[in-house]
Design goal:
Blueprint lengths: L1 H19 L7 E3 L3 E19 L8 E4 L4 E9 L2 E9 L5 H4 L3 E10 L3 E15 L2 H4 L10 E18 L7 H5 L3 E3 L3 E16 L19 E21 L2 E20 L4 E21 L3 E15 L3 E19 L2 H20 L1
Antiparallel strand pairs: 1-9, 2-3, 2-4, 2-15, 3-7, 4-5, 6-7, 7-8, 8-10, 10-11, 11-12, 12-13, 13-14, 14-15
Helix pairs in contact: 1-5
Length: 349
């Protein structure tokens, strides 16, 4: 299986290199021979909404993580990239908003018409910002329900394929290895595989509204494995060097759910179909050398159980500003040797 996956990546690399030569140069300017240095500022946000399925007068829960900003730098050349970041700023008052421990790891493998993204995100410690809606006498000092024991983590892999590769450039809007010269639109297809986990010491449903969740009110653990597919549409509006780009995916996924009910002291399993969505937008100035942009990427998880729905949203807002340098000769030679080696491997195979 590993050998097959490696061969698939090598084939995509070679196919994509050929596709680059087929682009319409009046619409897209390839800049893959440049070494890109991109400092950035980031503002990540994460929350989980709980909504009872058959209780129209019920109150939702809005578990929100207490996060701070990031400062970092991306270094990239062609399809290879390295990203380093550090947290900066101050957390909101932990007595009011709780203390969140969180970590995340991401990686991507980008080609002209193929893109692979992998994520690991882990958050522990939340405050329900909708507490005043169901707790009629909240304390002024402690207005929100705080769950330091609540942990949410997930592993996700996305594969994105671009159909219309001649005139629309996805990298021009989100990785800046190309430049969009004229306005264009494109069609995409996304495949999504996800492993999603929620864990708490007791039921993560707030006690005052547990009756709306019926037999699933005592749920304390949830494990979900999903696989889905979603078509997408995109646009990039260009005026001189100014651009505004966006992409939206809408589809469905199959979910295998396993959850633990403390009241029954047993695990239960279920199969469900849930919506699959993803969106990202970018606004900025993209020149032949320098660029600056504000990018917003939304990563959604929809979990559809029999008695309630859960939706997590991870929003990453970044301010990117970078410059494309002529690539050092040693970098070019090293990359070309690796590419040549992979080309020989695929021919032998």
């Amino acid at each position: 299986m590993r050998k097959g996956f490696l061969l698939l990546l090598i084939m995509l690399l070679i196919i994509s290199a050929r596709c680059i030569a087929q682009i319409d140069s009046s619409y897209i300017l390839p800049l893959h021979d440049k070494f890109i240095v991109k400092p950035f500022l980031g503002a990540p946000q994460f929350n989980m909404e709980l909504n009872p399925a058959f209780a129209p007068d019920s109150v939702n829960s809005d578990y929100t993580a207490n996060t701070i900003g990031l400062i970092g730098i991306d270094l990239s050349y062609r399809s290879a990239s390295l990203s380093l970041s550090k947290r900066v700023g101050q957390f909101n008052d932990e007595k009011v908003y709780g203390k969140t421990k969180y970590s995340q790891l991401s990686g991507k493998f980008g080609l002209h018409n193929f893109s692979f993204e992998g994520y690991f995100k882990k958050y522990k410690g939340f405050a329900d910002l909708n507490t005043p809606s169901y707790h009629k006498t909240p304390s002024d000092s402690f207005p929100y329900l705080i769950r330091n024991d609540l942990e949410i983590k997930y592993y996700k892999v996305k594969g994105i394929y671009q159909f219309s590769m001649r005139k629309f450039s996805y990298p021009a809007a989100f990785s800046f290895t190309e430049r969009q010269r004229r306005s264009a639109a494109g069609l995409f297809m996304m495949v999504n595989v996800n492993r999603f986990l929620i864990n708490a010491d007791s039921s993560f449903i707030p006690f005052p509204v547990q009756q709306d969740y019926k037999e699933q009110k005592s749920i304390s653990e949830l494990k979900v494995t999903t696989m889905g597919i979603a078509p997408g549409a995109s646009f990039n509006l260009v005026w001189r060097k100014l651009f505004f780009a966006g992409i939206l995916f809408l589809g469905a996924e199959v979910q295998h759910q396993k959850y633990f009910l403390t009241e029954d002291n047993q695990w239960k399993t279920n199969w469900r179909i849930a919506p699959l969505a993803d969106s990202r937008f970018s606004l900025g100035v993209n020149g032949n050398r320098a660029f600056i942009a504000i990018t917003v990427k939304n990563d959604f998880n929809y979990i559809s159980l029999t008695r309630f729905n859960a939706k997590t949203t991870h929003t990453a807002t970044t301010l990117d500003f970078g410059y494309r340098f002529n690539a050092p000769k040693v970098l070019v030679k090293t990359y070309d040797k690796i590419f040549s080696f992979l080309h020989k491997v695929i021919r032998i195979s």
